[in-house]
Amino acid sequence: MNLTTIIGLFAATCTTASFIPQVVQILKTRNTKGISLIMYIIFTFGIFCWLIYGIMLGEAPIIVANALTFSLALTILIFKIKHG
Questions:
Q1: How confident is the model at residue 83 (pLDDT cuts 50, 70, 90)?
Q2: Domain 3-83 class?
Q3: Domain ranges in the chain?
Q4: In this structure, which long-range contacts are made by residues 8-14, counting pairs with CB atoms below 8 Å and at least 24 apart in sequence?
Q5: pTM for the predicted model, two decimal places
Q6: pLDDT digits (tens, 9 = 90+) for 34-81
Q7: What is the per-residue pLDDT for 55?
């Protein structure tokens, strides 16, 4: 594994992990009042596009980060729609 891939995976870990506290808070409280529905729709779609881009390039850091971030963002979006 080269240095570029290592840095990419580290960056992916940091940015993806940053969503975990928000998802945990929403799962516990069911409160999504402070979250913009339009922003999360656009954001989740953008992450999905990054995932497809990563798959097309075959780049593990992009694929892993965006697959995980997509699932976390989608969880938030679903709760926003259901409980918003």
A1: confident
A2: mainly alpha
A3: 3-83
A4: 8/59, 8/60, 8/61, 8/62, 8/65, 9/60, 9/61, 9/64, 11/61, 11/65, 12/61, 12/62, 12/64, 12/65, 12/68, 13/65
A5: 0.85
A6: 999 999 999 999 999 999 999 999 988 899 899 999 999 999 999 999
A7: 97
